Amino acid sequence: MITACLDIYLFMTQPMNIKETLAYEIKTGSSVSVLSKNLHNQNIISRPYYLSIYARLTGQAGKLKVGEYILKPGMSPHQLLTTIVSGKVKQYSITLVEGNTFWQMMDLINNSPYLSHNLNNLSDNEIMSRLGYANQHPEGQFYPDTYHFPKGLSDIDFLHRAYDQMQQHLNEAWQNRDIGLPFKTPYEALIMASIVEKESALASERTTIAGVFINRLRKRMRLQTDPTVIYGLGRNFDGDIRYRDLRNDTPYNTYTRKGLPPTPIAMPGIGSIEAVMHPENTDYIFFVAKGDGSGQHEFSSTLAEHEKLVDKYQRKR
Span 2-86: which CATH code? Predict the structure, then answer.
């Protein structure tokens, strides 16, 4: 009896026959006997009944957690069993990119082989209804970040996490916002943050660009920003904005309509949200891209100054 216990102890604490990192999936209804048999068939362990006996004696046999686990060289059967009982499953990740649109985000999610899919081929309204947010426009409502998750997580649960993260960050920023901003609700600030996200290539310019647009709102000037027009064109946009696009009146055309567009136009990151809540105090109401690949802009307070800068950087006069 003592010899048998010693054999089991040595078996459980010595490294398994693993030459390279492997993935092993515990499926629903799987037992320690199935685990032992599979590991033996793959020549990973030599005595499968030892693993089964040990798991039963320690009360771990009925505690296996469903999921995908990593088997590494040097891992012992004891370490493997502990990992599976604790539920430390392999994690996958998806990065939601700042400035991407909702449909770009959904393309990424729908193409992930590691999520379980329930939302394919649904409209935006149907997706939001499935999430429990009926009648909400989806754009800008999901926080751009890298999310880690186990294989088989549903796309619905994934989106819930991203949605909750955005609401948390937005509400915290709203509570600490500067006094006197021209926004009635956090959602209006979110719309502005999405515009700042699309207009600012450099983090250092976000607060200045936010200040420009907020000055325009206060003066009841049109925002006149191309990204909103492009968003209004939808997937039909071919990468080249034309004069006729600027004259084509849509709810998102800030050249033809005053105020904010009806919804965000992209996923803003926390930098753009904070910039809108704490904009630079400036008298600038214009800016123009230098067009030299740096992402920098020149800012001005009068139309005359702005026209000179447009001549310099865009018309090349």
Answer: 3.30.1490.480
